[in-house]
Amino acid sequence: MKVLKFGGSSLASAAAIKLISAIVKQEAKQQNIWVVVSASGKTTDTLLQLISLALNKDDNYLAELKVLEKHHINICKEALPIASQTSVIAFIKGECNKLQQLLDAVYWLEDASPKTHDKIISFGELLSAQLLEKILQEDIESVQYKDSRALIHTNSQFTNAKVDFNITNSNITKFQKNNNARITILGGFISANKHRKTTTLGRGGSDYSAAIYAAALQVNVLEIWTDVSGLYAANPNLVKQAKPIATISYEEAMELSHFGAKVIYPPTIKPVLEQNIPIKIKNTFEAEAEGTLISNNSNGKRQTIKGISHIEDIALITLEGIGMVGIHGISKRLFEILGNNHINIVLITQASSEHSICISVASTDSQKAKKLINTEFKNEISEQLIQPVIVESDLTIIAIVGDQMKSHQGVSGTLFSTLGSNNINIRAIAQGASERNISFVVNTTNVKKALNCIHAAFFEAHIKELNVFIAGVGNVGAKLISQLQQQQAYLKEALNLNVKIVGVANSKQYYINKNGIENTDWKSNLNKQKINNDTSFYDAIAVLNKQNSVFVDVTASEAVANSYASLLRKSISVVACNKIACSADYNTYKELKYLAKKYKASFLYETNVGAGLPIIKTVQNLISSGDKITEIQAVLSGSLNFIFNEYTTESDFYKVVKKAQDEGYTEPDPRIDLSGKDVARKILILIREAGIPLEFEAIENKSMLPKGSLEANSVANFYDLIGREEAYFKALLTEANNKETRLKYVASFKNGKASVGLQFIAKNHPFYNLEGKDNIVSFYTNRYQEQPLIVKGAGAGADVTASGLFADIIQIGSAS
Ligand code: ADP
Ligand code: ASP
Ligand code: MG
Hints:
Layout: E1 2-6, H1 14-30, E2 33-37, H2 43-55, H3 60-79, H4 82-109, H5 114-137, E3 143-146, H6 165-177, E4 183-187, E5 190-192, E6 198-200, H7 206-217, E7 221-226, E8 247-249, H8 250-258, H9 269-274, E9 279-283, E10 292-295, E11 307-320, H10 330-340, E12 345-350, E13 356-362, H11 363-376, H12 378-382, E14 390-401, H13 411-421, E15 426-431, E16 437-443, H14 447-459, E17 464-471, H15 475-495, E18 497-505, E19 509-512, H16 521-525, E20 529-530, H17 536-544, E21 549-553, H18 558-561, H19 564-569, E22 573-576, H20 586-598, E23 603-604, H21 615-624, E24 629-635, H22 638-646, H23 653-662, H24 671-674, H25 677-689, E25 700-702, H26 715-723, H27 726-738, E26 741-750, E27 753-762, E28 774-781, E29 789-794, H28 798-814
Helix pairs in contact: 1-3, 2-3, 2-4, 2-5, 3-4, 4-5, 6-7, 10-11, 13-14, 15-28, 22-23, 23-26
Bound molecules: adenosine-5'-diphosphate (ADP), aspartic acid and magnesium ion.
């Protein structure tokens, strides 16, 4: 024999019922079966809403009841031939009439006791089970409905009644003795007390009814048919990567359901566990999927944790005070007062000092609990031995569960370091005595992120997801986006990195796609979200609250640079080619490094100097290996190098500058390059990386521009001014040619002093032959005293800058 239970969504439409029919027909070929059903779709929720409307004197309950009636009649009409419909429609209308009388009573009496409440909500299962009976009878023989209230006997704790197993089991076996039906159909969730009054078994209780029948009948298997393909390692609505668990022990399933895995109602496991009856969770809408087998065999030797579950809407209640230390019986009184008032405690933590006890309860119980506890301890509170109860809300409990946890070290280490590096604050922690779970409380705003990063840490250890947000989609930004998109498959395959571009922004708009921007549609979508204020994009990133978020600054904006600190404080890594932050005052630079360390985020800016060339990394490696940098000589401006290489006796200086700008070799504002400011920022950053706390003002800038040209009030005006100074630039060039030298803009650092300026470089100098937009840096160090360590290569251009940013991003991915 078998018991099959079908959930609400499996009865929500005629099409779904057709699927049930096929499954049931197939099973009934092999053996007798009992089919237990929930109310159709969300009927129980609707019935509760009807009660509340009637109770509040809102006569909309009548219209809503009509909608419910229509829902059932529609199923009937779609599922049955016309000839069979009349009697079934009459039955539905008859039941809805009874419902209306009950609701009218609530309306007029303005009272709905738990007893009335159960009577009303039982109609959900009464309707669905009898409707299914009538539909199945159409083409299957030997189908019979049985009222669960005649079998499951409970106490009178309405809405959450407790089952009397002696009477119930005897009722079931007695009934089955004379039951010849091949298929017996029953409503789940409903039961009756000794006065034959309707009771219910708690929300989600149909699973429990099915387990009670399965245990009493000692069937081979209990099948729970629902709308997902098994018990997933985490709620599949929140964790897209979660997969169904193939096999799991009763205890593990019990813990997961206790902590919120809704797919199975917690009390369900106990009756079948005692009889060693396996539970199979199956998907009505994908019957061929394997599903989950719950049995006494966890079969997960290699899997330390089996799943993660969570309960939202939790409140944390703290009782503390010096009077608690060593006083006997405080916890006993606390638990008793809550237990006696049916308040369920989901989690308990007590500091070993016994100075405080923290408990978690459903938010809906928190005010009642607060009152009860304050009253219970009013003497101690008035003597200031205990402080009045503190209640915190908007919290969620998350639990990780696995039989193997106790024999594996490091589970909590992985758990808490994952949460820490994602800036998720933990409000309370408890470990079950069985060591089968670790549960903890976090702010509800962090739930999705927490579930995803824990899931990634334990179940997708081989793949790390990076969520990238790019500010600035000009030349370099657009190149970076296309490089990341193009390499996405390769990064997954070769580096186990899933790099998703989740958001892009320019100074006016941003576009976010939670699932990742995979093509060029960002261009047309970019105008979807206006940037209303300076923080719009950052706020959107914070609200998304994704694990391993990386913000990439591809702008030259001071406002964007000013956002790094707050991003890092949220554990959002920052990658920047924008040099403003690192060349701001020394304290800012230091603070950002400190914040990155403190919040376990990365702050990387290799492209601040030499675009994609590994210059900053070289300095960092020298310093961390104990070397000391004594001198730096460098051509650090790809744009100036390009300009002076292109500038000949035949060309005009301002036209060459324009060309450099058009080809993306200059800063958006070319004055930053030509004034020497950009080079000064770069050498400053190198000096700081070498461990020297220099300020920008300390760098001597031997500007090469004619006086007045920097006073231009716009880029256009600047071009105009330098256009008029052609003779000045020609004179510089002629002087260089006459001396058989070349013009190079050189940055140097020696004897603690830094300067930038134009120099006449002689033929024998290593800088003389520096081509195109190349950069060169010579480091003299304690280890490289005679011959410097030289890094040379293309130091400007969208492609190489984008690939430098790319390298920084994947470096974050490979950090643990
Ligand atoms: P039914 O009506 O069939 O009893 P429920 O709605 O009670 O179905 O339970 C199934 C739902 O439980 C799924 O649709 C899913 O949204 C939710 N759920 C929460 N956690 C999990 C989990 N870990 N695995 C599978 N489903 C889960
Ligand atoms: N229909 C009831 C509810 O919605 C019982 C169940 O679905 O298991 O809670
Ligand atoms: Mg359910």
